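Let us begin with a simple case.
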Amino acid sequence: MNAPVVELEHVCRTYAHGSVNVLALKDVGLELRPAETWAVLGTSGSGKSTLLNILGCLDRLDSGSYRLHGQDITHMSDDALSEVRLRTFGFIFQSFNLLPQFNVLENIELPLFYLHLEPRQARERAQELAHRVGLYERRAHRPAELSGGQQQRVAIARALANDPEVILADEPTGNLDTATGRQILQVLMDQAAQGKTLVMVTHDHGLGRECSKRIELQDGSVAEYVHA
């Protein structure tokens, strides 16, 4: 069996909400391995987005541990965590987070700028990814000129630009019609088939059944774990 890429143990995360502390995650443990597809299920407020942010080093845990390739990064500095995010994770946000003034290729290239890739190489990589998600013919269009499904494809291509080991997707098909959602899911599943780890937050139990592993959160705790 492949060694875990990510290991979380006894993770807890609390947020201050006014004068009240809200426990977003409570004693959560998880191991992510290469080529696995994960669905993180649960109702609104169950802790799904918090877990995704913890996994992607966008948020810190209050207690517990986080190991990446066996190295404990729980107390790593912010600068070091930024480097980890850039080189290890690809993020697909529910609201796409595309830059409206940039065209398709420029949006895809953005992570490569932070990796200091030579501009010609960055453009070639962006063109390759635009082809892969079926948007090469729209490569000069800005987000406002694209449909929701096309914008999601740009977001996926951008998430793949740095060749991440782990893809983290927040409701990747939530705003799309059924046919477009199936196409987007296939693009993501193809990445897992190539050895990447895919983690999708979703309300859709049907989408969850497409994944090899499922975890359901309830009030910040693991209510159910399924290994298909």
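The second case is a distinct protein. As before, the sequence precedes its structure tokens.
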Amino acid sequence: MQRNTIRKLLNIPEYKVVRVSSTASEIQVWLAPYKRNKPVCSGCGRSHTKGYHGMTEVIVEDISLGERRTYLHVSKKRYRCPVTNQIHVEKISWLNLKTRITRKFGEKIYRLTAITTNKEAGWFLGLDDEKVYRADKEILEEKAKEKLEPIPTALNMSVDEVSYRKYHRYLTNVIDTDRRLLIWNANGRKAEVLSLYYKGIGKESCLKIESVAMDGARTYISSTQAHAKNAMIVYDKFHIVQKLNKAVDAVRKAELHKARRDNNKEVIEFTNSKQRFILFKKKTNLTENQSKRLEELCQLNEPIYKAMLLKESFLNIYNPQNESFAEALLVDWLKDAANSSLESFQELAKSFTDKMQFILNWFKKRISSAISEGFNNKIKRLKRMAYGYRDIDYFRMKIHQHCGLLNPRIAT
């Protein structure tokens, strides 16, 4: 293969092919810079014409040519930097400094790790896991500076946390619900963590936020009220239904405990863990057999019957289009739940009373954090595929790569 042809295939500016050597599995290419090149110091980032200290050679890997792995022998100049007074090797724009690969090859690794694990990408490219990790992290860090600095803003957003490690280790995620993209995340779930996002975007951007959907966590509410003062806080419907189901399940567990104590086999059969999913479904989504079993259970056990009535009556609050009518229904429900003999619903009534306005805000701005739950599932799947991440900063960037602005499929 002619040198000129290889130079065109490599598409490397300002360098010429000096020598080529090839085998059945590899291609070795020696490159040298043109004399007119002005080297850039890797220490200060400037071009120097004085302080020349000799030449050195590095071997870097490029994208394979004709199914043969391609290695480039690149001659680099060394200079004594007048700024740092130290000897530095010149910086070459198309090389990755940390991993000794070309930028094109780094981009290929980055695109591949966006759809599979580092281990699988390494197997496909013939690289070890550590090299894939370092190459991918270097590209992600560069793209994060380009696309995540300054911190992206959103008019309507969703805030939620996701567990990334046992012993209550969480990440706080901010989602732009209009663009359906994750735009920010940080380690922790305290008010101070979310405040970092609001402080990062500045006061003017905070005042432009129209709505924030969340799961009702007091830490997120206090932070949002302190910074995004014009934003409407919406208690997400998904999380409300989740809390209702937990309250119903608490009643089921209490009744199952009583039935086992009294050896009531009929109640045990209807309230065991295999039957609990019937209690969580909407009545309209139940099969004929499930509806029959639920009816039998309600006739058999009064507390569970009360719990199901409270759950269904709360869900009916979301049916009316009129906010004032919904408010009246909510007030009545809070009284019924507080006066019920069910401890889990009494506690829920106290919580909903404090956050009543946030529940009613759903009728003004029907925003949901359901997209956050979808992203949480993707994040958990990402963590399981990699069998966990030791580098939390790398994991955060991988989340942006799969769910946010660092996704190679997104042109931003």
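The radius of gyration is 30 Å. The chain has 17 helices and 13 strands.
Keep these points in mind for the review questions at the end of the chapter.
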